[in-house]
Amino acid sequence: MAITPLEVAARRTGGRRGADILLEILESEGVRYIFGNPGTTELPLIDALQGRPDLKYILALQEASVVAMADGYAQAAGRPGFLNLHTAGGLGHGMGNLLNASVSQTPLVVTAGQQDSRHTISDPLLFGDLVSIATPAVKWAQEVLHADQLPVLVRRAFNDSMAAPSGPVFLSLPMDVMEETSDVDVGSPSIINRDSIAGGLPELARALAEITPGRLAIIAGDEVHGADAAAQVAAVAEILGAPVYGASWPSRIPFATSCSLWAGNMPTRATDIAHRLADYDAIFALGGKSLITILYSEGSPVPPGCAVYQVSADARDLGRTFQTPLSLVGNIRASLDVLLPLLQQATQPRRAEFTAARDHVIAARASRRAEAEGLVARHRDDPVVAPCVAAHEVVRAIGPRIAIVDEAIATSSYTRMFLDSDWAAQYSFLRGGALGWGMPAAVGASLGLGREPVVCLVGDGAALYSPQALWTAAHEGLPVTFVVMNNREYNVLKGFMRGQTHYISAREGNFLAMDLCNPPIDYQAMATSYGLDSRLITRATDIAPAIEAAMASGRPNLVEIVISTI
Length: 566
Hints:
By secondary structure, the chain is α/β, with parallel strands linked by helices. The chain is about 40% helix and about 15% strand.
């Protein structure tokens, strides 16, 4: 039986259930979507959603997908994602993608249903120490003890998820708290201006202006995206005639890839980063943790004699790993707005030198792009589609205005190489390293962009971690095109092992647990079972037409591309 308007009104007056109070707070915070997968302990919240048309429940079929959908939504919408998991088991299912969100500093308000607190003394089924489970992956975790606490704790969660460094927070919601009645006033959201301007900007302007033109590199970290500061970074680079690099293992490319000063992302090994920075006397890092390394190599990524200057809203990251002559705490966009005129004045006496340095950066970018096109030309007629060709054709088909969510590790470096867009928010990537993020993140990204088209690039192995996201895309009718790059193996791992000459695997050419071909996985059947149209592509010339047709359909689609292992 449908809930009546009188029942809805009664719930919004004195004596409302805790679940109704929670939803009132969410509505006032501007929440549009609740991402979740319900179980018994979440049923009070599900029941309270009756008669609330402004709050839409986005059903995912497994909690790992729930978390990544909320992550993709938050990154695309620029506001916290709200999600509701199923007690200890569901929280456990979601932990991999919750760790991804933590590393990416995605603002999430994570909740999970908890057993009735009056029941926990008997060690019932579906009970667990949710706060302890969540704590390693969130900024803070707390259990709500009474319905009267909901306004303070829920609003605190929204505020703290956005405060630098942004990231997930967690609230445990016992069933009895969700059923408890209260007449507490939910209040209204706080207005918090986080546009703090860093101190020391005149000193920073002088220091940057004194660096020999052509000997400074700018690194635009993920924080540039959160601060919406791409235009300011480009203006700084123009004044200094400096190349702009992206982070070594990014969550976003927060800069226009069509900009003539864009120099691509840093490599992921310390020795390779140091080699890239060898020609510079200093780096200007905007945002923290931009030089993440994966595999160990001897030495620091910052070569001796290379000074590190930083601006970040996260005070903990400044000087954390690398000594710095000057780093400033402040919002990147607000601080660069003040820095720009100071920098313009400080560099004026050497304007011709900075202009010449800029021209050199522009020429170097043109040379790199020509080399990339040459690489594609050499492999275009390979019998099996080469990864570089697949990435080139996919990017060409997508164009500059469609959002890309990338979890196809075998082609990701090539994909970033061919991007050419003036939209600084086009590209997002798996920063946390736990697979199963990309497909559900693309679903969330489409919702965060107002149900706009999104293309998800995913490896064949990664596609097996959260395939349930395909169902949610079909259920919601979202225009997401999933592109599976299928080399039928864990290619990145094999590549690493081949490089280890002391490994028995490398010497014998035998790699255990790395092939996905016996039996082969039928991604077409998988897509069909979840309600999507799909196509299998084995020729380079068919890639762009297939993706263009999928995007033009306005429906979710899956395109599988068989690629080589080189």
